[in-house]
Amino acid sequence: MKKLIVLGAGESGVGTAVLASQKGYEVFVSDRGTIGTNYRKTLEDYNIEFEEEMHSEDRILKADLIMKSPGIPETVPLVKKVRKKKIPIVSEIEFAYPYCDGKIIGITGSNGKTTTTHLTYHIFKTAGYNVGMAGNVGISFAYMLATDPKDYYILEVSSFQLDDINQFKCDVSILLNIVPDHLDRYDYKMSAYVESKFRITNNQKGEDIFIYSEDDSEIQNYLSTNKSTIKSTMYPFSIKKKIERGAYIHQENLILNT
Questions:
Q1: CB-side exposure of 180: number of CA atoms within 13 Å?
Q2: Are 239 and 248 in contact (CB under 8 A)?
Q3: In what order do the strands lie in the sheet with 26-31?
Q4: Residues 108, 157 contacting (CB under 8 angstroms)
Q5: DSSP state letter for 101
Q6: C-beta atoms surrounding 9 within 10 Å
């Protein structure tokens, strides 16, 4: 039985723990702080072992796999020890992905992710699709897969979540914009933050879709030298100019050319 250690008993950590316990992992949740009442109850309900206000390093460093909550930076000494031992670290969306049978619409960007996620979910729901909204808004992707699977998942995805992906793939990825944010997590290098955002296109193939802002300078700068690395079908959008294949605004009308 594979040993999964979950670092951080927040939404993503507890969701991962529940899904992992269903899939036959030996799960142990460790949180340096105090675990919230609701999350504690969930862990207890699913008979998942946990600790709080401490990290049992000896046990953690014997893991086969570690899911690190997105709020935990790489600079934490325990994370450095895990990396040194070469124990694989994944994000919640990476762990959950192999258990997903539905379509994933992933939305990222520095600003507007939550609003766009809600709007996209509303469109799908109103159209009658069996759809869920998860990620950085609402419940975690892993917990939804474990307790209420859907045909479509509208996910708000942060750069922190994207940093620890290997297989995770969106059927439709959306990159709204990129402005300086969380640069302390990226050695204050804007290029590293931009690359993190573009990881949402990782693993996409020709039949997948990448929607992005034609008006964003950081996105355009990246694409000017890296466009060939993106394998998905690309649809830009603009509120400033006409787009031949994509979307734009003309005389207060939204024009879509796909």
A1: 6
A2: yes
A3: 49-52, 26-31, 3-7, 65-68, 89-90
A4: yes
A5: -
A6: 26
Element (H, E) at 29: strand 26-31
pTM above 0.85, yes or no: yes
Give 197-206 pLDDT, tens digit per residue: 999 999 999 9
Which tens digit of pLDDT belongs to each residue from 104-154? Answer: 999 999 999 999 999 999 999 999 999 999 998 889 999 999 999 999 999
**CB-based contacts of 81, cutoff 8 Å, min separation 6:** 57, 61
The SS3 assignment for 28 reads strand
HSE at residue 252, side-chain half, CA atoms within 13 A, is 0
Decide if 130 contacts 151 (C-beta within 8 A).
Answer: yes
Beta bridge partners of 137: none
pLDDT tens per residue across span 16-36: 999 999 999 999 999 999 999
Q: Contact at 8 Å (CB) between 114 and 137?
A: yes
